[in-house]
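Running this now, will post back.
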Amino acid sequence: MADVVLKGVTKRFAGGVLAVDNVSLHVADKELLVLVGPSGCGKTTVLRIVAGLERNDEGDVYVGDRRVNDVAPKDRDIAMVFQNYALYPHMTVYDNMAFGLKLRRFAKREIDTRVKEAADILEIGAFLSRKPKELSGGQRQRVALGRAIVRHPTVFLFDEPLSNLDARLRVQMRAEIVKLHARLGVTMMYVTHDQTEAMTMGQRIAVMHKGVVRQLDRPLEVYRRPADRFVAGFIGTPSMNLLEGTVRPSDGGFAFRSDSAAFGVPRAFDPVLRQVPHGEITVGARPEDVVPVTTPAAGSLVLGEGVVDLVEMLGDEAVVHTALGGSSIVYKTTGDEVPARGDKVKLSVPLSRVHLFDSKSEARLEHSSDRS
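Update: finished.
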């Protein structure tokens, strides 16, 4: 097997559009790395550069110890699974899976062995004589996976392979791909815009935005300690509450003011706020960390009093949207503690759950109360 290394990879499209901007990544041997980000962030372009379907303008790409910048896609020992299944409608499942091996002039016995092994792994052995039109979406995606598996590649690339499936099948198939990765023990790169897929599938995730990798780390580390404001707002459902404003010295400490809220900042934040001379910061809190209280507890940051304007019931929990000045603050609560629309709630956040960002650079500001 092999690792995948990108060193300073840059790609420009017609008109000077910068699709990938100086991206460096190291996907370890047998790792499942997920590239996640909004549409147009460059994640698919990175995958296509690794596959050889796009040529990078700058930088180098390595598969194992081999530089593959000038190596044809068919010679990179990489298999790619696309969003579109791209199955031949006139061929049976068996022939679709065997087609690539036939082109490479494998012996019939070897082809038969590989196809049946892959079919057993994917539990599609009963469908080998069927045509694609006789299969469900999930079964067609398994065939596309099988077509990649039979090649025994060193690297698998997945380009949003589950986007065409319904919600239930997506959950099932993402679990199957994780199991497949563990069983095959191969290097995988997986592209998605779905952060749930990224968080549940990736051993590490690379969050991309405007052609740049904004953070590369384990999923929980990205969730708990987002590197910048973009990552904080993109990862998480519902997304992190973000209040942008200014801090100014007040009574020996600092006070925060925005269009939506004004509050005194606990002294625990003094050291980090002194490192932001322009005073423009963003205060962030995840919905599960916002707590409605009557009397705020010691060691908490009080955001202010909001008015409930929407409650989303999700069974065992509810997502409550409150209007705080001109901003919406969202928090989660159990189904037994749901306020009514129009209720006033005082909202606080434990200091260890408060996220601070420099509004100009968007970088995370570490503070002594930050969760470890």
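The chain has a mean pLDDT of 92. More later if anyone needs it.
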